[in-house]
TrEMBL record:
<dbReference type="InterPro" id="IPR041049">
    <property type="entry name" value="DUF5615"/>
</dbReference>
<protein>
    <recommendedName>
        <fullName>DUF5615 domain-containing protein</fullName>
    </recommendedName>
</protein>
<dbReference type="Pfam" id="PF18480">
    <property type="entry name" value="DUF5615"/>
</dbReference>
<feature type="domain" description="DUF5615">
    <location>
        <begin position="1"/>
        <end position="60"/>
    </location>
</feature>
């Protein structure tokens, strides 16, 4: 499924997009897509349980995911606001 179709589905369904694909950031910052949020797992060599563990860690932090692209790495999490996001 093309990245644009995945992004369109997330926007229509008002869902935060969980992805391993960095191209979704390009869709937001260069192409003007406005999802409610994106969580990008930027992991290189990882064990199969790592994404689930990191997702559990995300659920325990006091961060806002609506209106942000959140980049999750093994030792780092960072956020950048989605431009012109309307909550």
């Amino acid at each position: 499924m093309p990245d644009t179709a995945v992004m369109d589905m997330a926007i229509i369904d008002q869902r935060i997009l969980l992805t391993f694909d960095g191209d979704h950031g390009t869709l937001v910052f260069k192409d003007g897509y406005r999802p409610i949020g994106v969580v990008y797992f930027r992991l290189d060599d990882y064990l199969p349980e790592a994404p689930g563990r990191l997702l559990l860690e995300l659920s325990a932090v006091d961060w806002q995911f609506v209106g942000y692209i959140t980049v999750v790495e093994e030792e780092l999490m960072r956020q950048r606001p989605i431009p012109n996001h309307i909550s």
